[in-house]
Structures are given as structure tokens and as C-alpha cells.
Amino acid sequence: MTATAPAQAPAPGQKAPADERLLKTSLLRRLLGRPELGSVVGAVAVFLFFAIVADSFLRASSFGTVLYAASVIGIMAVPVALLMIGGEFDLSAGVLVTSSALVSSMFSYQMTANIWVGVLVSLLVTLAIGVFNGVMLTRTKLPSFIITLGTFLMLTGLNLGLTKLISGTVSTKSIADMEGFSSAKALFASQVTIGGVNLKVTVLWWLGLVAAATWILLRTRAGNWIFAVGGETQAARAVGVPVNKTRIGLYMGVALGAWISGQHLLFSFDVVQSGEGVGNELIYIIAAVIGGCLITGGYGSAIGSAVGAFIFGMTSKGIVYAEWDPDWFKFFLGAMLLLATLLNAWVRKRAEATR
After folding, report:
1. Global pTM?
2. pLDDT at 342
3. Most buried residue among 216, 236, 267, 304 by CB atoms closer than 10 A?
């Protein structure tokens, strides 16, 4: 049995050392410690830039369009950011959105069931795919890049092959006249008017996910587990963190986001093209990285991913409002990725230097 040596009293004339937990932290130091600081600076710069070069950018209708473009990416960027904080990737996230929509549509149409039956079946199937990714990762010990690349290829083939086999074409049949369509559309693809701005319901889903993810990261034990697993896996396991369950849960979170996005895709157009979604996984990762997430894991925030998605929305629509050639969009997106990564690295160094 060991005993802790009592703290030595200060020598006469000397002050007792202050408890570092009670020391006040300056506002600058607190700001530098936030992973989303760099993305916020970048968002302000992008906003001011397009406000100057595009006259229609500041209109209320334009703002609603920008938020919609951001929310479509942001719904997936939030769980992808949490997964990256946990030190993993999911390259199947883009096509999983399409898979979710296809399951809802084809199950409802082929079984002539209420739309909501297909929606619930889609939720179960999508979560099962997330569990598959997590279990394969934890059991095989292969890198998440390889696991999810395999899932990406399998889902891409299944989406196209099964759709052509069942529907005879590369798209699903219309389900607009089926029972439950209007109520499902109201939940996943409606719009509301707030302050003269027309907002798609995806904006509300997005903000809700950001709030929930932020609460999980900062106020729950699971949030500590996510940072610990992404920071140092072996150390986390040594102190009792359920590493495998945490990873599986993170992949289920990505699957949940894919289900929400998939239902929006379906009920916005009532048909789904089986080849959609390929390449979107990179956009989700870019939004998370621009928002301050590290490729190596253990650092980032849900709010940062939201800012990254907002930058994406401003850029994609700002180029249109500025009447530029949209072919330049990918160039600006790549430039923002590099600049945001460099800015985030500088902010982290400054934060570490002020400690």
C-alpha cells in the first residue's frame, strides 16, 4: 500500500503556489484552444468576399439557398467529424445515402406498403451497414480506409444492380401517390419561412444534429471516449474505455446521418437515381477538415464541421451568384481545404505556445 507525501508548506516569505485549476484563462487563450477558430475566420473571409463580388449574395432568398446547400452537406459532415475525431474514416458515406433512399423507395413500392414501413426498414438496413463497418474494423484490425472502401464498392454495385433488377431501369419508380408520402415529405423535405427567409427542413435537422453532437462531445462520458480513442487507442483501452463499442457507435452515427439525408433525397424528388452519391464522401471529409478536425484523430468539433459545411454552401452558391464559370468550384474548394488546414495548424501551434 502506498501513501501520498503531504504537500510541503511554503518557506517563510514565499507565497503558496496557485492551483492551476483556479487560474483564470484569458479570452485569447480560450479562443486559440477552440478547433473551429480557423474555420470561423475562413467563413468570415468567404462571406465578405462574395458579398463584395456578387450583388445578389446578400439577398434573403440567396441566404436560404446557401443554408440549404450547407445543410445537405452538414447533416453528414457532423457524424463524419465525430468519426474522424475518433480516428477513423468512412469512404462509403456518400453511396450509403443513396442506398438508404433506394431501400425506402423500392421496399415501399414493391411491397405496396405504407411509405413509413419502407422508411423504418431503411433505417434498420442503414444502421446494420454502419454496424457492419464497425464490426469489420474491430474484428479484422484492418485500416478503416480499406474496410469502408470495400463497403463503398459493394454498395455502389448493389445500388445499380438491384435497382436495374427490380425496376428495370437505373432509377426507382415514383412513390408520390402512395399512402404516407405527404407526411414523410413534411418531415424530411418540407420548408418553413422564418423572418422572410425560406428554409428547408434540412437546416433544422442539421442544427439539431450539431447541437446533439456538441452535447455528446463536451458533456458526456461518450464524448471523452471519442477523444480518447482518436488520441491514443492503447492508452484509452488501458484506462477502461470501450474502444470497440465506441468505434461501432461512431459508424452507426454516420449511418443515421446517411438515413436522414437519404430520406430527404427520396422525398424531395419521389424517385432516386441509383448512381448518385459517389464522391460525396470526400466532400463530407473536406467539410470536417476545414472545420478543424485532424486527419490523425483526437481533435475537432461538431461546430467546426458545421462551419466547414457553411463555407461549402457559400462557395458553391457564391460562384453562381457572381456569374462565374462553375467549373472553378472544385479549384476554390481545394484551395480552401489547403488554406484551412494551414490556418488550423497555425492556430494549434499558437494555442500550445500560450499554455
Report:
1. 0.88
2. 78
3. 304
In terms of phi and psi (left: phi > 0; alpha: psi -120 to 50; beta: otherwise), the region of 13 is left
For residues 313 and 333, what is the distance between their CA atoms, to the nearest angstrom? Answer: 11
Cell 469512404 belongs to 91
Helix (H, G, I), strand (E, B) or coil at 198: strand
The predicted-structure confidence for 271-298, as pLDDT tens digits, reads as follows: 999 999 998 999 999 899 888 888 888 8
- Count how many residues are written for the chain: 355
For 41-107, the three-class secondary structure string (H helix, E strand, C coil) is HHHHHHHHHHHHHCHHHHCHHHHHHHHHHHHHHHHHHHHHHHHHHCCCCCCCHHHHHHHHHHHHHHH
pLDDT category of residue 41 using cuts at 50, 70 and 90 = confident
- The residues facing 273 across adjacent strands are 171
How many helical (H) and strand (E) elements, i.e. helices and strands, does the chain have?
14, 2
Give the C-alpha distances (Å, rounded to integers) separating 203 from 36, 197, 208.
20, 12, 9
What separation in angstroms does the CA of 65 have from each of 55, 240, 277, 325, 336? 15, 46, 20, 19, 21
C-alpha pair distances (Å), 124 with each of 129, 249, 321: 9, 14, 40
pLDDT in tens, 60-77: 888 999 999 999 999 999
